[in-house]
Amino acid sequence: MTDPGTVRPGGRTAQVRESVLRTVGDMVADRGFDALELPVVAERAGVGKTTLYRRWGSASALVSDLLVEMAASSRPRADTGSLRGDLTANAALVVDTLGDARQGRLFRAMFAAAATDPTTAESLATFYAVRVTEWAPCVDDAIMRGEAPAGTDAHEVIRAVSAPLYYRFLTTPTPPDGADADRAVAVVLAAVAAGAFTA
């Protein structure tokens, strides 16, 4: 059996999935994972309960598919021609996402759910693995240009840019801003130059 979201269907099926996932995102952002009830999702999305249970079957599967779609539709990696420019674009994307009223609430709810729901935790980890892999070539390109030492761990560089932004998001009442993004990039660039990310 194919996992929900691993095939991008067309026509009516695609419309149903789009409506359901939009509804799931709204409900999780507004009320959290625990309030995600399949009959309510079906009613709000305008789809039959039988269809919903057949295709997804659980709240965890709905959230998993939502994260698949979010990873697939998120902004692609930048290619500015410099490591500083690319990492700045990556940091700006994180700031924009966490600062967005709906997306910020959605991610907070996802993190809370992941603490107690193994399926959501695995789906969230997969989401970030996809996004980090999308942006890692920025660092590989920088190595080729001589902007970073050979052997620099591209994935860890991308994670290091986002880490302080998420920390601020989760531990303070205000989301990260442009100054936080610039600071994160400056710190990571200094660490890259010092060889902190090489094996």
Automatic annotation (TrEMBL):
One of its GO terms (molecular function) is DNA-binding transcription factor activity. Pfam families: TetR_C_11, TetR_N. Residues 37-56 bind DNA. Keywords: DNA-binding, Transcription, Transcription regulation. Residues 14-74 form the HTH tetR-type domain. PROSITE patterns: HTH_TETR_2 (PS50977). SUPFAM superfamilies: Homeodomain-like, Tetracyclin repressor-like, C-terminal domain. InterPro entries: Homeodomain-like_sf (IPR009057), HTH-type_TetR-like_transc_reg (IPR050109), HTH_TetR (IPR001647), Tet_transcr_reg_TetR-rel_C_sf (IPR036271), TetR_C (IPR011075). This is TetR/AcrR family transcriptional regulator.
